[in-house]
Amino acid sequence: MRIIAGRFRSRRLNSVRGARIRPTSDRLRETLFNVVASGDPSRLEGSVWIDLFAGTGAVGIEALSRGAAMVYFVERSPAACELIRRNLEPLGLAGSYHLFERDAIEAIAALEGREVKPDFIFLDPPYAVPRAYHETLSRLANSWLSERALVIAESEKKFDPGEKFGMLARVRRLDQGDAALSFYRRAS
């Protein structure tokens, strides 16, 4: 696993063996960032990200490499949090990220209380816990998100996280290999 583009391009990231942490593949991350940038890489400059169920931190670190100003990593597993710290430490990004070692729903409430204004929210719950998609997307739909915020959910291709969650509606689904990305925006 490596960083695809930006100032840390080709830097290797630590991962762990086994299915407990399933990092977003390099290919899917590249597709994700191509869609998010929509042909204009400067769109990522100064952006604010929330990486829910962060695992190795690969998506948030990729965002930082491509110019994001701040990433909030959310991961409840102490082992995964340590892995994220090990991946971030050599990059010298202190002040550009915050790691929440807690449940995604609790972290969303904390971020809302801090009035964090995210541009992008990425979530990749464990595939074995499909209810986590509904719970998290429903909580985001009833949160402080602006109409410009883009929520991206990674899932198994054969699983559909859902079309609509309150004011949050899917605007695009992209299948790649065994995985899929669903893109959501808050309706006006």
Overall description:
By secondary structure, the chain is of the alpha/beta class. The chain has a domain at 26-143: 3-Layer(aba) Sandwich (Rossmann fold), CATH 3.40.50. 28% of the residues lie in helices and 23% in strands. It is built from five helices and eight strands; from the N terminus they run H-E-H-E-H-E-H-E-H-E-E-E-E. It has an eight-stranded mixed beta sheet with strand order 3-2-1-4-5-8-7-6. Strand 6 (164-165) and strand 7 (168-176) form a beta hairpin. The longest helix has 12 residues, at 26-37. The mean pLDDT is 92.
As for the CATH topology of the domain at 26-143, it is: Rossmann fold
Top-tier CATH class of the domain at 26-143: Alpha Beta
Largest beta-sheet characterization: 8 strands, mixed
Question: What count of helical segments does DSSP give?
Answer: 5
**Derived structural class:** alpha/beta
Helix content: 25-40%
Strand order of the largest sheet: 3-2-1-4-5-8-7-6
Give the amount of beta strand, in percent.
15-25%
Shape category? globular
Total number of beta strands: 8
Oligomer: single chain
Nearest-angstrom radius of gyration? 15 Å
Query: How far is it from the N-terminal to the C-terminal residue, by CA?
Result: 38 Å
**Mean pLDDT value:** 92
**Shape-level CATH architecture of the domain at 26-143:** 3-Layer(aba) Sandwich
Q: CATH H-level name of the domain at 26-143... which superfamily? A: Vaccinia Virus protein VP39
Poorly predicted ranges: none
Order of helices and strands: HEHEHEHEHEEEE
